[in-house]
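Q: Could you fold this chain for me?
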Amino acid sequence: MIKSSENIMLDHVDKSLLRALQADGRLSNVELARKINLSPPATHSRLRRLEKDGYIRQYTAVVDREKAGYDLLCFIHISLQMHQVTQVEKFREATRKMPEVLECHHITGEYDYLLKVVLKNRKDLESFVVGKLTPIPGVARIHTSLVLVEVKSTMALPLE
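A: Sure. Below is the predicted structure, expressed as structure tokens.
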């Protein structure tokens, strides 16, 4: 069983329900109930509880980035000059407002932040780095890596 920070236990039925939704978030309640061998009302009740308890944060469509015109997937490492609270918050707020930034992580090691960014082409990359990242107060270093091949990309957690 998995425990959350609130000590709510996930049993095997909850995990089966979450695995099924991770595989196909468009399943109807009846289809979901059939997959996890539970009645539709019981399935609906569990689903609402998992939503209420925050296990399911949102439902979304995963769009193919290349078909949508975003040829570049980049990982950008950022170092800040100083780690003052105001500087850190300004950086975080700036990245939250950038639609190109899919993910922003505060990390340990040589750099302070790791961004996962999608862009249409090299010119957009230059505009993004020079026009959006560099002007953020306190940014000291920017190191960009371009993804050559996306070997694996998933949002599904390995619920066991």
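A (continued): Residues 72-146 form a domain with the Alpha-Beta Plaits fold (CATH 3.30.70.920).
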